[in-house]
Each structure stands twice: as structure tokens, then as C-alpha cells.
């Protein structure tokens, strides 16, 4: 099986969705199945419309965290901080004062940078591949621990009694741990592996860097 047809979207743009909640119905020449959401968030864009065909491993939808307005709020705070710094520098030119405002600004910058680098490890589970399919066998891992992977990039091949398919990665980042080895069986919903997003790895480096 190399492709399928999107028969019905169960969610629309702007709708919120939970992890493993049915997201879209896909039909192939072997099986009709519901594809669950790999992450919790808000539907930002549907990339493949109903009745359109899509290849295995191709992205179907973009899911965000619903916090798009936060970036504009951060810009407003940065602008106000810059204005305060400008006023402080003018006062220092008129009458020399201790450089406490500059030190406070550095601390604020470090706090904001560490906050923006937030992220978390993401589990990769075996999705429902058919109404009567309850388990599958891992036939081949396409990535090894420590390798980087992109969103929706094929991560592992799984075989069931009805269909052979590739499970895509739910996040862009690094494969941390493989929980189910090749030729081992896994039940639907079972964790196959753990991945770390790029945001999490950046946050870890920032936390490990000594301050001062």
C-alpha cells in the first residue's frame, strides 16, 4: 500500500484536538481507517482535502498549540523594554549612575529566552489501523536512537494481518528511545518510541549553561 484517499475530515480548521483523538478517515484498496492525532493542539491548516489522494508518509494537516497571539505580546514587551533602556541611557549621560538597569535587562533576556525554549518529550504510539485491528508487528525501524527526524517523516514500518504501513513521527527532533524492537508485537495505543522536539533540546542546553 503506497497511497490512500481522504474520505472525511472529523475536525475543521480552528478546532481543538486531543492526542489519539480520531482526526480524519482514510480509505485504501485494503482497509478503511481513522487516523488519530499524534499531538494535542489546534487545527491550523488542512493540507489534503476530502476525496484527494495522498501517499504514505505525506503530511495531512498542520496542528499548532493555539498560542499564535503570544508572539505579538512578546514583541510589545520587547519594544517597551527598549524604550526604557533608551531613557535610562539618556539619564546616565546627564548624571552617571550604577548600571543596574543593564544587569536587570540581561536577567530578563535570559528568562525570556529560557521560557521560549520550552518543549517536552513526545511519545510515538501505534495508531488504529482498522476497526478490527488490535495489534501489529514492528518490521523495521527507519531511524536509530540519536538520529534527527522531521514532522510526518516515516519513522517505523508496522505489519498487521490486514495492512503494512509506515508510522510517521509526530514531532521534529531527535529519537530518544525505542520501546518496541523489530519483530516484536505492539498493541494499538502502545508506546513505540520517545522523541524529543528541537525546542526541548535547545532548552536543555540553555539550562545546562552556567550563568554569570
From TrEMBL:
<dbReference type="InterPro" id="IPR003016">
    <property type="entry name" value="2-oxoA_DH_lipoyl-BS"/>
</dbReference>
<keyword id="KW-0450">Lipoyl</keyword>
<feature type="compositionally biased region" description="Low complexity">
    <location>
        <begin position="112"/>
        <end position="123"/>
    </location>
</feature>
<dbReference type="InterPro" id="IPR011053">
    <property type="entry name" value="Single_hybrid_motif"/>
</dbReference>
<dbReference type="Pfam" id="PF00364">
    <property type="entry name" value="Biotin_lipoyl"/>
</dbReference>
<feature type="domain" description="Lipoyl-binding">
    <location>
        <begin position="121"/>
        <end position="196"/>
    </location>
</feature>
<dbReference type="InterPro" id="IPR000089">
    <property type="entry name" value="Biotin_lipoyl"/>
</dbReference>
<protein>
    <recommendedName>
        <fullName>Lipoyl-binding domain-containing protein</fullName>
    </recommendedName>
</protein>
<dbReference type="GO" id="GO:0005829">
    <property type="term" value="C:cytosol"/>
</dbReference>
<dbReference type="InterPro" id="IPR050537">
    <property type="entry name" value="2-oxoacid_dehydrogenase"/>
</dbReference>
<feature type="region of interest" description="Disordered">
    <location>
        <begin position="50"/>
        <end position="136"/>
    </location>
</feature>
<dbReference type="GO" id="GO:0006099">
    <property type="term" value="P:tricarboxylic acid cycle"/>
</dbReference>
<feature type="domain" description="Lipoyl-binding">
    <location>
        <begin position="1"/>
        <end position="64"/>
    </location>
</feature>
<dbReference type="GO" id="GO:0004149">
    <property type="term" value="F:dihydrolipoyllysine-residue succinyltransferase activity"/>
</dbReference>
<feature type="compositionally biased region" description="Acidic residues">
    <location>
        <begin position="72"/>
        <end position="103"/>
    </location>
</feature>
